[in-house]
Design goal:
With about 240 residues, the chain is of the alpha/beta class. It folds into two domains: about 170 residues, Rossmann fold, CATH 3.40.50.300; about 70 residues, no CATH class. Helix content is about 40%, strand content about 25%. Helix 3 packs across helix 4. Bound molecules: adenosine-5'-triphosphate. GO terms for molecular function: ATP binding.
Length: about 240
């Protein structure tokens, strides 16, 4: 479970997060919705301890990422907006490298690479060097790295960008199975169909503040608007950020 209370973060004069609070439960996929520049990426980076918050509290299964970043990272998979692939390595070499960094034993790691590769449809790119990979291929490799050590928590920053229809479906299947395993998933996205298809809970942030949290149905009920996209626009008070 991830619990966030009144988190604030400034970059110079820019107040990227001005008071974000929410709870993301285990066995649930929580969408993080917000217009461009709302603070979604900043929030995710703060949750894994890559950024230091100015104020507020964060608890990842009771652990503060600033006090014990290694413990939090062991239990978290984070798909960032920067994939950080090593272009001289093949996909398999890259995954072995990160699996070993996470303390996985080689036999278990080899088996897990096969599983994740089958899940994401990566067989054809497994032995290829990542140099020159398309956007969709790059995101698959990064996603595979994120899933490799079976994290208890998964933070995904726009995971479906650049994915084709088959890969988007594969991602959905992967997320369903992680949810069934009790994983706590937070997914920043601009794609409303993804939210309605996958997420039982939605956090709406705008201007660095939590504007609302609830199921898609609750947000529609609260705004008196039947369609989630229109409800979102009404909550943030702008037409920005709609895919
Ligand atoms: N390193 C940084 N230095 C200065 N300003 C930053 C930095 N990182 C983020 N910001 C600012 O903080 C605000 C929130 O940015 P953030 O990337 O978290 O938004 P986002 O919700 O992820 O946006 P998008 O949907 O466009 O990806 C923006 O105004 C952004 O310009």
């Amino acid at each position: 479970m991830i619990e966030v209370h009144d988190v604030r973060k400034k970059f110079g004069a820019v107040q990227a997060l001005g008071g974000v609070s929410f709870t993301a439960r285990d066995g649930q996929i929580t969408a993080l919705l917000g217009p461009n520049g709302a603070g979604k990426t900043t929030l995710l980076r703060t949750l894994v301890g890559l950024l230091k918050r100015d104020e507020g509290t964060i608890s990842i299964d009771g652990v503060d990422p600033e006090k014990d970043p290694m413990e939090v990272r062991r239990n978290i998979g984070f798909l960032t907006d920067q994939f950080g692939l090593y272009e001289r390595l093949s996909t398999r070499e890259y995954l072995v490298y990160f699996g070993e960094l996470n303390g996985m034993k080689r036999a278990a790691l080899d088996q897990r690479i096969e599983e994740v590769s089958a899940l994401l449809g990566m067989e054809e790119i497994l032995e290829r060097r990542t140099k020159g990979f398309s956007q969709g291929q790059r995101i698959k490799v990064a996603l595979a790295r994120t899933l490799l050590h079976r994290p208890r928590h998964l933070l995904l920053d726009e995971p479906s960008r650049g994915l084709d229809v088959m890969s988007t479906r594969a991602l959905r299947t992967a997320l369903h199975s992680l949810r069934a395993d009790g994983c706590c998933v937070i997914m920043a996205t601009h794609v409303m169909q993804e939210v309605t298809a996958l997420c039982e809970d939605v956090i709406v942030i705008a201007g660095g503040h939590t504007v609302a949290q609830g199921s898609p149905e609750e947000l529609c009920r609260r705004t008196g608007i039947a369609n989630l996209e229109d409800a979102f626009v009404s909550l943030v008070g702008t037409e920005e950020g709609i895919a």
